[in-house]
Amino acid sequence: MEFKELPPVKEQIMKCVRCGKCRELCPVFGEIGIESAAPRGHVFMVQMLRDGKVEPSPEVYEKLGQCLMCETCSANCPSGIDVHELNAAARAYLNDKNPNRGKDFLFGNFWTKPEMMKQSIKVASLAQRLGLQKLARNIGLTRLLPGDLKDAEKILDNIPPHSARSQLSAYTPAQGESRYRVGYFLGCGTDFLNPEIAQAAVNVLSRNGCEVFIPEGLKCCGLPHIANGKMDVARQLTIHNLKLFEKLNVDYIVTDCGSCSATLSKKNLKFVLEGTSYQEDGAAFAARVMDLTVFLVDVLDIQVDVKIDRKWRVT
Ligand code: SF4
Ligand code: SF4
Known about the structure:
- The protein contains 19 helices and five strands.
- With 315 residues, it is mostly helical.
- The protein has three domains: 95 residues, Fumarate Reductase Iron-sulfur Protein, Chain B, domain 2, CATH 1.10.1060; 53 residues, no CATH class; 129 residues, Rossmann fold.
- Helix 4 packs across helix 7 and helix 5 runs antiparallel to helix 7.
- It starts with 6 loop residues before the first helix and ends in a 16-residue tail after the last helix.
- One iron/sulfur cluster (SF4) binds next to helix 2 and helix 4.
């Protein structure tokens, strides 16, 4: 579909009344404080892009790329504008106009192949233990990484040698009587950087009467691809994952990753699958997706005894 014809671009831009409510809430605007970094500024920028008043240049991409896709502005806009969707649509358009081989490989190839990622993470972990990451940082090699990776790399200080998927079974039985069949949506961050969290999530589900299924061949939820202008790849990943879970016939699909649960929400899947024949499947899938903590409390009815530390005061 042409950029101008995409539903958020076609239907939402004119709803912006420039009230600025979104500015107050945007964490990026809170830090940077300039209008082009505010959600309202992004809406205006996308409008200018649509109307041909700014060129689809890398500079425009960089400005729109300051958005974290946290959805806070969208959730609070009195006109009901999905600012993050507008931004994502514009990034995809800008990405098409400014192809980048490194980014194409990273998001169009590497980050669609969990096995390749698993092996690479192993190598990265070894390189880190040998001090090579430090060396690469010192000589500026890491600055050559494409997309958001040059920033993301800075937080990779302790890469575990083994991913979660190399340690977890595709099926974990319930301890005691089975109450639910649960699909565990293993996010990339948990899988490759925090495998102990995945293990703990599976344990807690199993101990509370859930049979846990991790579909073989599960791929990324697609958020990195959406955020990097690769909407077509995000769509393919989503369809792939929908089909995998469909075969498992689970009651719920649970994830411990906040980014995955937001990406797999009904609203977001509607946006990603727009114009495909998978919209109904996407809605049925999203209806079963639940954040792990919500699932534990609302479905498994686990009562949490929250102890308030009196030293802290919330204002
Ligand atoms: S809150 Fe909504 S209507 Fe108001 S400026 Fe932001 S995007 Fe526009
Ligand atoms: S989605 Fe982007 S523009 Fe909106 S509040 Fe979050 S960071 Fe700001």
